[in-house]
Design goal:
The protein is an alpha+beta fold. Helices cover about 45% and strands about 15% of the residues. It contains 22 helices and 16 strands. The strands form four sheets. The chain has a six-stranded mixed sheet. The protein has a four-stranded antiparallel sheet with strand order 2-3-1-4, sandwiched between helices. The protein has a four-stranded mixed sheet with strand order 12-13-16-15. β5 and β6 (about 170-175) form a beta hairpin. α9 (about 240-270) runs antiparallel to α10. The longest helix has 28 residues, at about 240-270. The radius of gyration is 26 Å and the shape is globular.
Amino acid sequence: MSSQSPASGKSRHWVVIETGANQAYVFASNKQAVNVGASELIFRSGTEWVTEVVRRINERSGRDVVEIVVAASGKALLLARNAAVGRAVIRAVTRRALHQAPGLEIWGTVDPKPVNGDADLAAGLSRAYQLQAAWRSRRPSPLLRHPTLPFTRPCHYSGQPSTAFGDEGGTPYPRAAKVDAAWRRRNAGRNRMADRLVDSAVVQADKLNDGVSNAGWVAVMHADGNGIGSVFRSIADAYSGQEFLAKLGAFSRALDEVTVAALRYAVEQVNDRTGWLLPLVVGGDDVTVVMDARPAFEVTATFVERFAEQAAGNETISQVLADVQLPGLTACAGIAYVKPHYPFSQAYELAEELCSSAKQIKRIDPSCGALDFHVLHDSIGQHLGRIRAPLTVADGDEAELRLWPGPVVIGEPAEGGWAAAHHVTPLRTVAKELGRKSSEDNPPVLPRSALHRLRQALLAGRTETNRARDQVTVWAPKREKAEAFLREHLLVDEPPADSGVTFSRILGAIDLIDMATGTAPHTAAELDDIRTAPSREAA
């Protein structure tokens, strides 16, 4: 076989293959085993399937007529010697999807205009992306492949038309084609994730139907890198020819390595539990996992912090960022705390909205990451704006009091600014102080009854909160300590001084304490994640 790359030839056509509506496909069912299998199919579509098709075509041709530039979960970028070869790759991959991943939205585009020399590679890729987007807007939905008819039995897990029966717990249940395909891949998906992370932490294959171990609450965490799209666009402007292809592929691989390494490090810090984690999406700069609520906050904060550190230490990423003159990579995350049987798709949507909320840090301090979280006590799913409307209290003519501490900033912000006021360290301090075990010699800064009084007062506004603050300091075992504690954390004026926004760390800290302990009987060890966080950070 010739070793010559098609990228060195004169006639080269960009080929773009992508999956779409990934969230709808993965979360079509609330069954976590199905979610894992669906995620595995998306991963294979852009990696294994594309790689195998390209290998077969090159072997038949006796030379490399197709070159893989990027092969990632749900996405592939290729260079083909002619348009017909590119269409053959797309045909083979999409046909395999029809058989092995029914319902998966996957399509491809070949740029009919060949690139003219190495200098035209970046412009050609941009052209191919535009064609890909235009073609997607004209494609019919995959749902039209399986219309529900009056005589069709609905799938037990998704409500879609069933095509097969599958056994679960000794009982046969009807399954839709997409559910059945995902179900068959659940163990493979679980094992791949466990190999990349920590096997003992990931739910065992025979426990996938039960979900993660928990003490009454689970956390759905979604994380995403900041400004990654800008980096990829800048690569096209900063490089050309073979260097552009090399940097594009190397950066994509490095980004995936950084994300996996950061999450693995965060997971490794939890060494007192097994089966507490279920990764669904871990690839590129995207992470979606379900986990036991108890370690969720510290795992997420550690991931966000470690992501920036890993990216800064990665030679490929550092070189690309220096060349395109962009700051270091950071990430943001959202954590939705819900009951174990809460509809998973709705919990994911909330986590995604919380992640978007955290991303406001990009406009304020791009050197930092952030996370936002919410404990959902309601049984009805709502958008984040409606959830937080009752937690926003009028505080004067145009001012407002927000009863949540997020976004919580991770990193090293400038002193005295917005990011410093929202930094994770003060929130950890409050949670540690309110959640620690007390004794006669070392009483709590505030008794539990005082926290209940403050919770009620905060919902009534600043005047009532100030009145309650004066009351609870009288109840406190050590009045001066309580006064200083509440002065710093009860009502925090958000910089700048004229913002008109005040927020409180108290209710958020109480939520974190409740989540760290769960509803099951617990010991002091359950609070280790929060109590030891400041010392771990200092280390």
